[in-house]
Design a protein that fits this description.
Ubiquitin-like (UB roll); alpha+beta; two-stranded antiparallel ribbon; 2 helices
Length: 117
Amino acid sequence: MPKLTVEGVGDFDVDAGKRLVLALTDEAGIDQLHACGGNARCTTCRVEFVEGEPTRMTAAEKKVLEMRRVTGVRLSCQIRCEHEMTVRVISRLEGSGRRDAGRRPADEIHPQPVEYA
């Protein structure tokens, strides 16, 4: 069971393979944004990695980050909790001006992940 550390919040045991965006909302109780429903379209689910950043990235994540010219962050909707990681949450509902965080993402990553090494 991987350990997720959320900077300033605490440490959480997460089921292996769970999407990071869901671990942040379910286990850590964070009001993490995910406006597109976790489909790698909007970049509102951004996090910064302090430690344990995954070495692989889905094609969808790579495409949207490049298209929006966003660097230094990852999309929590496109990452599975497969090892220990420490993240800094930077994209929360509180203070965003949005009405809600977005529709709950599915348990599986969408679009179907095509990963780069």
